[in-house]
Amino acid sequence: MAKAYELKNKLETAYVMYEKAKIKSTASGYIEEINASLYRVKDKMNLFQKIKFIFR
Fold first, then answer.
1. Torsion (CA) 19, 23, 26, 30 in degrees, nearest 10
2. Half-sphere exposure of 19 toward its Cβ, with a 13 Å CA cutoff?
């Protein structure tokens, strides 16, 4: 789901979905992939979106 939101440029929703996937994941290799995705999505966000996630 997160990748679909990322492709639709709904980055805030994608970030939340990646966080949920990380919490429910058990495979360490997959968690590293999710961390990379979280970093990539956060890098794509503009300043206001980043500030929103800092203060939530």
1. 10
2. 9
**Residue matched to tokens 């500030």:** 51
Q: How far apart, in whole angstroms, are the C-alpha atoms of residue 40 and residue 30? A: 15
Reply yes or no on whether the pLDDT at 34 is more than 80: yes
Indicate left, alpha or beta for 10 from its phi (over 0: left) and psi (-120 to 50: alpha): beta
User: What's the average model confidence in pLDDT over 6-24?
Assistant: 93
Specify whether the CB–CB gap between 52 and 13 falls below 8 A.
Answer: no
Decide: residue 41, CB within 10 A, 0-12 exposed, 13-18 middle, 19+ buried. buried
Measured between alpha carbons, how far is 4 from 26 in angstroms, rounded to an integer?
Answer: 22
Q: What is the pTM of this model?
A: 0.85
